[in-house]
Recover the amino acids of this structure.
């Protein structure tokens, strides 16, 4: 069912989400029924010469070349049926939107004759990044990890929009008030307990061959039950779960680099002030103190979970992983104590 320009829409833009909402409304008014890109088939055809993410994105690109760009795509028949016929009207929630989102996400409902599907809409200015995040959301969930359910993607010539399920009562952990906005977390100690959960979650992802690429606290959310999970997967790289003893030297080095990058991103978001996109917890402390706190809250829980998972794995030479984890810990310590991030921030400000 195609839409007509006479269709009535309501949009309540939040701060600078206005232009993105307007563009979404413009695109969706001309949208036809969602087109199915069966993700089962896409993942099944993906080779392993590159990362699984890269292979799947390449296959998605091949499949969309024969279809108009300004179109809503879904990854499963279930999602297609959920959205089909529901682009008759779109409303944006008046009470929540981009003023509370680091990613300029806005929320609303796609409403048709059979009801409303509540969605979160993330505007993205690069098609490649949009397809990568859509692919990675599917891959992460298929490997048993919690994150937002991908409902669809609307591609435009300049970028597009990612549609995911809307989840209420979740809070991004870069929000300094997350402990008070999640009803059961209200003390400073509770906030520290929440931070201690992040390392083990990241360890589980790494053990499964999932490297986030931008593992800042703004990309970690907590639900009302205290569950922690990562979001915003556009920079992620997903590979086959590493089996230590079977990796080449180059593969082992790449895993180490990606592991270190994710841990440095977490440290950076604890160090940087809120004006620089962090929470400022470590800002102003000596490098030795910064490392001590980071080791207690993030690094040690991360390493302990990696060792627990190592014991459950099928690795040929587990001592290789132990060696790499020791090297990663040493490099992180040197990085923090040398004040490398401070130097980078200072350089950026001067430029």
């Amino acid at each position: 069912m195609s839409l007509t320009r006479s269709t009535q829409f309501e949009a309540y833009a939040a701060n600078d989400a206005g232009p993105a909402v307007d563009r979404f409304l413009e695109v969706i008014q001309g949208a036809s029924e969602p087109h199915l890109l069966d993700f089962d088939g896409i993942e099944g055809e993906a080779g392993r010469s590159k990362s699984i993410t890269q292979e799947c994105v390449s296959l998605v690109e091949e499949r969309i070349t024969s279809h108009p760009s300004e179109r809503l795509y879904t990854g499963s028949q279930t999602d297609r049926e959920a959205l089909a016929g529901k682009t008759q009207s779109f409303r944006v929630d008046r009470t929540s939107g981009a003023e509370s989102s680091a990613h300029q996400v806005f929320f609303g409902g796609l409403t048709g004759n059979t009801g409303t599907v509540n969605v979160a809409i993330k505007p993205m200015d690069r098609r490649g990044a949009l397809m990568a995040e859509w692919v990675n959301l599917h891959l992460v969930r298929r490997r048993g990890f919690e994150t937002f359910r991908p409902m669809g993607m609307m591609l435009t010539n300049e970028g597009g929009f990612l549609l995911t399920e809307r989840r209420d009562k979740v809070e991004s952990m870069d929000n300094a008030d997350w402990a008070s906005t999640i009803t059961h977390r209200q003390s400073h100690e509770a906030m520290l307990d929440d931070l201690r959960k992040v390392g083990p979650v990241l360890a589980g992802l790494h053990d499964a061959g999932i490297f986030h690429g931008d593992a800042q606290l703004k990309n970690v959310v907590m639900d009302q039950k205290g569950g922690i999970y990562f979001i915003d997967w556009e920079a992620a790289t997903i590979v086959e779960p590493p089996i230590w003893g079977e990796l080449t030297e180059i593969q082992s080095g790449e895993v180490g680099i990606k592991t270190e990058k994710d841990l440095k991103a977490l440290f950076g978001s604890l160090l940087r002030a809120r004006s620089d996109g962090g929470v400022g917890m470590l800002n102003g402390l000596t490098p030795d103190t910064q490392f001590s706190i980071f080791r207690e809250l993030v690094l040690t829980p991360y390493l302990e979970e990696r060792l627990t998972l190592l014991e459950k794995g099928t690795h040929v030479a587990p001592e290789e992983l132990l060696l790499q984890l020791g090297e990663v810990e040493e490099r992180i310590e040197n990085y923090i104590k040398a004040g490398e991030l401070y130097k980078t921030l200072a350089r950026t400000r001067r430029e």
User: Anything to note?
Assistant: The chain has two domains: 15-165, 170-350. The mean pLDDT is 82. The chain has eleven helices and twelve strands. Residues 170-350 form a domain with the Transferase(Phosphotransferase); domain 1 fold (CATH 1.10.510.10).
